[in-house]
Design goal:
The complex is a heterodimer. Chain A is an all-beta fold. In chain A, 0% of the residues lie in helices and 49% in strands. In chain A, strands 2, 4, 5, 6, 9, 10 and 11 form a seven-stranded mixed beta sheet that branches. By secondary structure, chain B is mainly beta. Chain B has one domain (5-112): Immunoglobulin-like, CATH 2.60.40.10. Helix content of chain B is 0%, strand content 55%. Classes of the chains: A mainly beta, B mainly beta.
């Protein structure tokens, strides 16, 4: 069964460093998302991406964050100059054309980011 | 904010009992979804109910939607220990025509064997 894959599964970084989290969405999906979840807390929307541009972003998604689809398969989240409060689990998700962007989301297993 | 808010925050039941979780949201929606998350794992889609539907079933799951009250409920019948997880409702939340699905705070369900 097709699945969303994320790498790395866990990354430890020093405060102020740049981090790139990678996602390979399901191949025929057109809508892509990043969410984050601080330990034990709610799943927070960061950004959605469609047709090679950002569709929506939350107030969390400030200039520190950027997303890119550098080729036909990867979808990346870059965090510039990480802060302690960026420590969280980051989830990538995708959905297909038939559901539009507000239908069933398929999630990866997440990338845990620890900022020291 | 259009986030769904679930209650209860946590629920502990015995295997075989039914579990009911509720979700409320604030503005109009096109659909409402329920997801499950095992500890430390990704979210898994359970069921989607459209705004013109009132009830939907999938196996042991039953979802209701009351758009007049802006609320939904998820019923899991004959619960099993393997149902232990967090359950989230999610709504499409964009007011600009974009794509934005917002999750509530979740209900932690613990099913005792």
């Amino acid at each position: 069964e097709p699945e969303v894959t994320q790498t790395p599964s866990h990354q430890v970084t020093q405060m102020g460093q740049e981090v790139i989290l990678r996602c390979v969405p399901i191949s025929n999906h057109l809508y892509f998302y990043w969410y984050r979840q601080i330990l034990g807390q709610k799943v927070e929307f960061l950004v959605s991406f469609y047709n090679n541009e950002i569709s929506e972003k939350s107030e969390i998604f400030d200039d520190q964050f950027s997303v890119e689809r550098p080729d036909g398969s990867n979808f990346t989240l870059k965090i510039r100059s990480t802060k302690l409060e960026d420590s969280a689990m980051y989830f990538c998700a995708s959905s297909d054309w038939s559901s539009g962007g507000s239908g069933e989301l398929f999630f990866g297993e997440g990338s845990r980011l620890t900022v020291l | 904010s259009q986030q769904g808010e679930e209650d209860p925050q946590a629920l502990s039941i015995q295997e075989g009992e039914n579990a009911t979780m509720n979700c409320s949201y604030k503005t109009s929606i096109n659909n409402l979804q329920w997801y499950r998350q095992n500890s430390g794992r990704g979210l898994v889609h359970l069921i989607l109910i459209r705004s013109n539907e009132r009830e939907k079933h999938s196996g042991r799951l039953r979802v209701t939607l009351d758009t007049s009250k802006k609320s939904s409920s998820l019923l899991i019948t004959a619960s099993r220990a393997a149902d232990t997880a967090s359950y989230f409702c999610a709504t499409d939340a964009s007011d600009t025509g974009g794509f934005k699905t917002i999750f509530g705070a979740g209900t932690r369900l613990f099913v005792k064997a």
